[in-house]
Model the fold of this input.
Amino acid sequence: MVKDNVIEVCGLTKRFGAFTAVDGISFAVARGEIFGFLGANGAGKTTAMRMLCGLSYPTDGRGSVAGYDVMTQGEQIKRYIGYMSQRFSLYEELTVKENMELFGGIYGMRRSEIRHRTDELLQQIEFAAHAGERVGRLPLGWRQKLAFMVAMIHKPEIVFLDEPTGGVDPITRRQFWTLIRHAATAGTTIFVTTHYMDEAAFCDRVSIMVDGRIKALDTPASLMQQMQARNMNEVFVKLCR
Ligand code: ATP
Done:
């Protein structure tokens, strides 16, 4: 069976002056896959992710996201993806529902469509009763779950999550990963960065980036076997030290 790849990159490179932040990375991600994009601080993950999201143009290499060229079609890419940035991205002064309406509008959705989707997503996280609450008053874990739902409002083909569970407690992190798995099962491709190695084990495949290059890419089980490691933390330490 031919795999339906929604992300394909070859030799993708980003230079800032003389400094190479992303150094010729190549990989493909299949539809519905949960792809973990790991690396130490400063490895180049966010820079690579921004190129895939059409937010920054590559210096070199080629690739496509949702069928669009990362070199020339950044605007088209943005329509087919959701992006949850490292920094909290919702408007704290607005209510949950108002945030949903705002972002749905930005994605060009009709009002009725936004209403329907808001109800659906808030029910999914059992938060419908809080639709009228101001986002700034909510605990971090809820805000992160909402930011994920907002990134999904327009039913994107691919969702990019940049450290979505940073600073969140272990129970909420578990719930967050249940939501991620649910979205992937429904056909959304998940491209996720994390610093929590227990979370890496929830990914279908994981790539580990060191100094701008992909040093390993495989399923968590294969990586542990190849590196003779008991867990993903050990894999990470062996590759990154
Ligand atoms: P973290 O986990 O800390 O977010 P990261 O893997 O996402 O790290 P990047 O933010 O992609 O790493 O940064 C990779 C390297 O590129 C870093 O050394 C960073 O200082 C550098 N860098 C990022 N953006 C720029 C820029 N606009 N100009 C110059 N250097 C940059």
